[in-house]
Amino acid sequence: MEEKTNKKLEEINKFLKENQEKAGEGKSSGFENGNTGNKTKKTQMEGMLESENLDKQTRATDASITNRMQEIEESLALKIL
Known about the structure:
mainly alpha
């Protein structure tokens, strides 16, 4: 799960970096630059939100696994007694 999350974050960061570079190349185009900047900001926000959602999902999964492990450990401890 963590590998998938890390891979997805790398893809998002690469995508954002490429869009920033493209936006930087078109600065001399006046009005279009503003439009490109807005698209870049929107893309960055979408990437950041997706990144945050993946992080939340990973933490929720980790918590779920940890809770289940504790339940199993407690169950085993009771059986030993």
